[in-house]
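Severity: low
Component: inverse-folding endpoint
Summary: output formatting inconsistent between runs
Steps to reproduce: submit the following structure tokens with default settings.
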């Protein structure tokens, strides 16, 4: 199965994608995490996209598609353990596509690989909630795990539970950048709701409140409705 998680920045896509990929064995592809990793490593790609991320702007479609293409070609990382190298049960896209052009390119890419898009799950939350969530979000720069200092804090203050070290406040989670990201979302990403409605693969989940309960609702949606279609 191949599934897209769609929603406002801060709607919980990353948190839900992590939980779902652990539960269902799907391969989590987060373009945001990929870009942050490249920036941290100081690669040419990282240097190229860094200003887009810090300014809350979208990276150009061509670069995004190159990254996605290479992930679909070579989904497993070499350093993964034998257990993790087992074939993935499909892709779980988080933060991609973000424009109609990216969605169209993904359609062609999947069909060229004889793959299908099974569902787009829209995580529905209020704008006020996402602003609050992003302000209290912290991330691990090494393993990309997402925390929230209010609703899902780490066991030890500001430290990743997986032992990676100190957590970071995302540069683009500052109020002025959040505002820009929400504008970009409304302009360029929200049209994907009608795009996927028209494709007949659109599902919606109320994504307010307890993250674990939301994960259970998504799993139940996948098992009872999406897997049967
Ligand atoms: P995210 O972690 O998904 O919130 O993404 C963080 C930032 O990475 C975004 O604000 C963009 O600058 C960039 N980015 C991530 N995914 C995409 C995408 N599909 N298209 C363009 N830019 C992206």
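Observed output (run 2 of 3):
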């Amino acid at each position: 199965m191949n599934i897209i998680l769609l929603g406002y920045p801060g709607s919980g896509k990353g948190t839900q994608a992590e939980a779902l990929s652990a539960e269902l064995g799907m391969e989590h592809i987060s373009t945001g995490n990929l870009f942050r990793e490249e920036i941290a490593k100081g690669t040419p790609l990282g240097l190229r996209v860094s200003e887009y991320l810090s300014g809350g702007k979208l990276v150009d479609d061509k670069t995004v598609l190159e990254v996605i293409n290479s992930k679909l070609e070579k989904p497993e990382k070499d350093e993964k353990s034998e257990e993790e190298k087992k074939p993935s049960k499909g892709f779980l896209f988080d933060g991609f596509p973000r424009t109609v052009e990216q969605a169209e390119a993904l359609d062609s890419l999947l069909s060229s690989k004889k793959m299908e898009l099974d569902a787009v799950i829209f995580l529905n939350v209020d704008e006020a909630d996402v602003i609050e969530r992003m302000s209290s979000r912290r991330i691990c720069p090494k393993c990309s795990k997402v925390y929230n200092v209010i609703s899902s804090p780490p066991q030890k203050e500001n430290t990743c539970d997986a032992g990676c070290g100190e957590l970071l406040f995302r540069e683009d989670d500052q109020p002025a950048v959040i505002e820009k990201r929400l504008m970009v979302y409304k302009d360029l990403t929200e049209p994907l709701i009608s795009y996927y409605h028209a494709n007949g693969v659109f599902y919606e989940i109320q994504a307010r409140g307890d993250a674990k309960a939301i994960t259970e609702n998504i799993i139940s949606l996948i098992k009872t409705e999406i897997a049967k279609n």
